[in-house]
Design goal:
Length: about 700
Amino acid sequence: MEKISVIPVQYLKGIGPKRVKVFSRVGINTIEDLLYYFPRRYEDRRNFTTIAMVKEGQTQTLKATVLAKGERNSWRRRGFSILEVVVGDETGKIFCVWFNQSYLRQYFRVGTNLILYGKVEKYGNRLQMNSPEFEIIYEKDSFLDIGRIVPIYTLPDGITQRNFRHLVKVALDEYLPMITDCLPYDIRSRNNLYNLAQALLNIHFPEDAEAQKEAYRRLSFEEFFLFQVPLILRKLKKRQCPGIAHRIEGRLADSFITALPFQLTTAQQKAVEEIKHDMAKPVPMHRLLQGDVGSGKTVVATIASLISIQGGYQVAFMVPTEILAKQHYEKIMSQCQNTTISGIKEIKIGLLTSGLDKKEKEKILSRIAEGKVNLVIGTHALLEGSVQFKRLGLVVIDEQHKFGVGQRALLPQKGLNPDVLIMTATPIPRTLAITLYGDLDITVINELPAGRLAIKTFYFDEKETQKAYELAIEQLRLGRQVYIVYPVIEESYAMDITGAKKRFAELKSGVFKDFRVGLIHGRLKQAEQDKTMEQFKEGKLDVLIATTILEVGIDIANATCMIIEYAERFGLAQLHQLRGRIGRGKDESFCILVSRSQTEEAKARLEAMVKYTDGFRIAEEDLKIRGPGEFFGRRQHGLCELKIANPLTQLHLLKRSREEAIRLLARDSGLIERTGILLKEKILEKFPEYEKLILVG
Ligand code: ADP
Ligand code: MG
């Protein structure tokens, strides 16, 4: 029987070549992808709130009929149209408003029945929803769309909720019977888990809230389990392999420390000691270095690198973005080059990113292969097959949450059991860290360098945006620089928010017209991003408008002010990372969170940002505020490969999955029993990088 993971999605009726392309863009290529494309939320369409019952500030699902519609031009903004639709039920009426979306007109014929979802606002005594999500209901509508709990997806372009929903249903009907469950029966029964078919059916079309919860629990367990098995396997195998015993006493590392313009903090010294201890041992180091933004992890990693280099070994230093790679390169270069102590100047440092042209790349590749480069700093490009080291002694991976577990495993394979140092700023409670990074030893840097001024954080309502800009201008007048961050690049009518690009145009010729303003986001060409970043770094730009591309590692001491607009749209961990970009110099810094959400939850979260500066504390607050009931809040923990499981809110399930994985591997460490084979296939599908680990017995 063929597996659904290899059946292309175009086998389904209703999916032609055009749709294949669009689906592929959101990662749906096979039937399995489609079945694992989970709803973003659900609507309970069994009973509706009547319009008479709705209150201002609530987010509601309503069922109503179109009574009238009209379109007018905005008197505030030229060329801006406003579509107004009055809808009602037996108890009252409510206005729905869309901006600059004339094309929606056609959907709202008088008498059409709609389901609306959005936030209810009140203007005078008129109830209104701005740009609500809507779905038209027809007489012939099936039980899939009404009278039940209905899934709502993040849609690929050009398909409606209804069409997508029906497509998923067809796929479930046709392919569920052929599905194989990779979770062994005994594990399912010990943990009261749904079987896979039951789970997939109920995650899309839950019979009731309880069934949805169970489906979510089962699928999360599966995800955790598939994640734990390779970790534990790796831990088992690691104990057996020989590593490099580095020469930790040496000229380079010591003179580097002496020449630093500052003293290492006690926590940094302790981290260096632990790393030295590991590196000296003849088994490979696998250490996680955890420390809040700005705690100085990079210097520690540089010292580890020099230890490796002084013994004649090479170092691969991987970071998630080109900008960060360049920044590290320049920083480490200057730290080494400024030192007059002999030896350090001669260290050859290379930069490897996908932005290099062919010739440059070939040159650096051959120098790496010949061992003429001691330290290579690079992006994912380091993982490519063409990168060969002569004597790889240490692998450093920075901001590890940006890489998959699999990628993390790939780089060390370029050497003979080199030491591995992984760094993260994601604040994870210790119990959780042990479970998530089960194969690593952990060092925590729990101290910031002395003399840093705390960042002052404010929380403004959207109406006070102007005030935020004024604060920024005050800083600009002092010669400082400013970041302004947006959650999206393009403006989004669906969400009714303005994107970075549009705001750039507005601000450049408006509020900040006396200053030099730049724009940076992930869809610009790499060269352009680099140029803008370079200009900002050199002080040739005063204001940098950006998306979350800033999140990792950028270190510019003169930037003392950050405005984050639509702050309610970011996770707390992300806000904390972003805020870590300022307060890096000796001047007082300001972070202004601008939000328009009035919900208690959003307020509480942003107030936590104002109150706390410690990343651990913020993570705890986040957990408290959102509670374990929080749905698919998956981006928070930064483990990109977990699609739905959330280690913060499902810690118990994660622990159970780990116990089960340990139990299974104790019995069948080669994954050769019948259930083991299924599992092995599944893991290799998910993390092909593990092939070596799993297949080599
Ligand atoms: P992280 O990567 O942990 O966020 P960095 O390594 O980028 O932090 O360090 C932040 C800044 O603090 C850098 O400019 C670095 O040179 C500086 N720094 C690191 N350690 C110290 C220290 N002990 N005293 C003063 N400044 C330090
Ligand atoms: Mg860093």
